Amino acid sequence: MTTAFDAFDLAGTQLANRIALAPMTRSRAGGGGVPTELTAEYYAQRASAGLVITEGIQPSVVGQGYPGTPGLHSDEQIAAWRKVTDAVHDKGGTIFAQIMHAGRIGHPVLLPDGLTPVGASAVAATGQVFTHVGPKDLVTPRELTDAEIRGTIADFATAARAAVDAGFDGVELHGANGYLIHQFLAPNSNLRTDEWGGSVEGRIRFALETVRAVVAEIGGDRTAIRLSPGNPYNDIDEPAPEPTYSALVQAIEPLGLAYLHLVESVADDRALTESLRKQFNGTLVLNPASEGPTAPGALALIEEGVADLIAYGALFLANPDLPERLRAGGPYNTPDSATFFGGDHRGYTDYPVLGA
Known about the structure:
By secondary structure, the chain is of the alpha/beta class. It is built from eleven helices and 14 strands. The strands form four sheets. The chain has an eight-stranded parallel beta barrel with strand order 3-4-5-10-11-12-13-14. It has a two-stranded antiparallel ribbon with strand order 1-2. Helix 1 links the parallel strand 3 and strand 4. It is globular and about 50 Å long.
């Protein structure tokens, strides 16, 4: 019987186990979006995960949505990430960089030179974003032009190349939780009538073209994508997500991706998860639906064949040696909900995590 503690071949990279560290925004970067020594320590502490997935890393200045988040668009940032990847590799770990463009989730006070958040359409999300000067109402983003969309896709590909140059084993494109790629997928945040919106084919185009550009840059075996069908986080409304995500998964299937990372919002998502798994022949990483932090018992989903890897967020935050504790059946430190902004502590959301 396959268990979570068996080794796993991820597109030619050997993982020590089938447990993943889920990406969690930490807001701990130094000036200029440069990772610090603490960043290297944090990920090295959790390198016993079969797969380490970083916090969201912006591919460009305008992609930043929270204070203190790191980038992958300057030489200084790349050099600092090299220290992080070296620290993880020295511990025998495998690490993917999550590339995240926040899109309309952000605020001008977080951006330099008078920049403003951008999006698929000029539709503001309801809610606030945390900034260095306190919570701010989300603003109406500037709609990206066709040329700017193509430039943003190029930014993702350039950041992916920078990640490889920094020593990452691969990249995960953040297409979930209401950020830019998700904003193009969702009908309430993408009101476009051109080739980047309207039909299902139009709404999946930005995600698909971004995946293709990154694959062309670094190869499919080092490229992954994270999706959260139907997740309402960041004011996303996808009342019937199945046609959109089926079309997207079928379109990326021939590209030979390292993995597909799915986030379930509610238990009812399992049917869609199983449907998408049948359409995707590669590795499936799963953040399963739960009432709180993903529980140790979620590892049974690997034995049942629902997923190949299970991603843990909050439990990994509180237990840096989580794989060892899972194997031993505990004990577990309890995640402190006071360290989170927001209401979901499973680790699949992307609000800043303090004390991390």
